[in-house]
């Protein structure tokens, strides 16, 4: 979780502390849910540390409470991504070589009859990522409900963050 220090008035950026090394940097998000769920990191090494740090749950824990498992999730080379943003994120994460990338591997019950399916999970680190270009009301509600109901680490990724990864950690 990031620590926001103060807003910059002329720009729509916030000064934040990196959640890993505590270096201050210009955080390019000024609205929820990005403020609370975008990875608050100042560099690629800090992002890798954020993803790979130990979690209080295992892959088996995730598997045990999920509604379904996507059998194609491990065969990522055959996946048709739903958006160009997902494809870009997959390519950038593949370059970092920090684990096996699963595409939509699990579904979690968030309402009586609704399921939430995070876009990506990195194994063995068991971190979820949701790529978002445009937020619709129902998508926000499902995401926020998932965050409240489950203890898993999940981060929102948008085009700004993918550009950060492709520029080798330059905001």
Brief characterization of the structure:
By secondary structure, this protein is an alpha+beta fold. It contains 6 helices and 10 strands, in the order βββαααβαβββββαβα. It has a 4-stranded mixed β-sheet with strand order 5-8-9-10. A 3-stranded antiparallel β-sheet has the order 1-2-3, with no helix packed on it.
Structure write-up:
A hairpin with a 6-residue loop joins strand 1 and strand 2. The chain has 6 helices and 10 strands, in the order E-E-E-H-H-H-E-H-E-E-E-E-E-H-E-H. It is of the alpha+beta class and 171 residues long. A 4-stranded mixed beta sheet has the order 5-8-9-10. It has helices spanning 34-37, 44-52, 59-65, 84-96, 137-149, 159-166; strands spanning 3-7, 14-17, 24-27, 68-69, 100-103, 106-109, 115-116, 120-123, 127-131, 154-157. The longest helix has 13 residues, at 84-96. The protein is globular, with a radius of gyration of 16 Å.
Task: List the defining traits of the structure above.
6 helices, alpha+beta, disordered N terminus, four-stranded mixed β-sheet, 171 residues, three-stranded antiparallel β-sheet
Gyration radius (Cα, Å) is: 16 Å
Number of E-type strands: 10
Largest sheet, strands/sense/barrel: 4 strands, mixed
| Strand order, sheet with most strands | 5-8-9-10
């Amino acid at each position: 979780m990031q620590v926001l220090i103060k807003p910059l008035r002329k720009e729509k950026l916030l000064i934040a502390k990196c959640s890993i090394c505590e270096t201050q940097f210009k955080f390019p998000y000024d609205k929820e849910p990005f403020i609370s769920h975008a990875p608050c990191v100042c560099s690629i090494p800090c992002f890798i540390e954020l993803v790979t740090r130990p979690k209080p749950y295992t892959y088996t824990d995730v598997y045990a409470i999920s509604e379904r498992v996507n059998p194609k999730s491990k065969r990522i080379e055959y996946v048709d991504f739903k958006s160009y943003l997902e494809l870009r994120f997959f390519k950038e994460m593949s370059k970092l070589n920090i684990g096996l990338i699963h595409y939509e591997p699990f579904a979690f019950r968030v309402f009586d009859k609704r399921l939430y399916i995070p876009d990506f999970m990195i194994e063995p680190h068991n971190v979820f990522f949701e790529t978002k270009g445009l937020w619709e009301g129902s998508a926000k509600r499902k995401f926020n409900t998932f965050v409240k109901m489950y203890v898993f680490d999940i981060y929102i990724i948008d085009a700004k963050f993918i550009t950060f990864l492709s520029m080798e950690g330059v905001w």
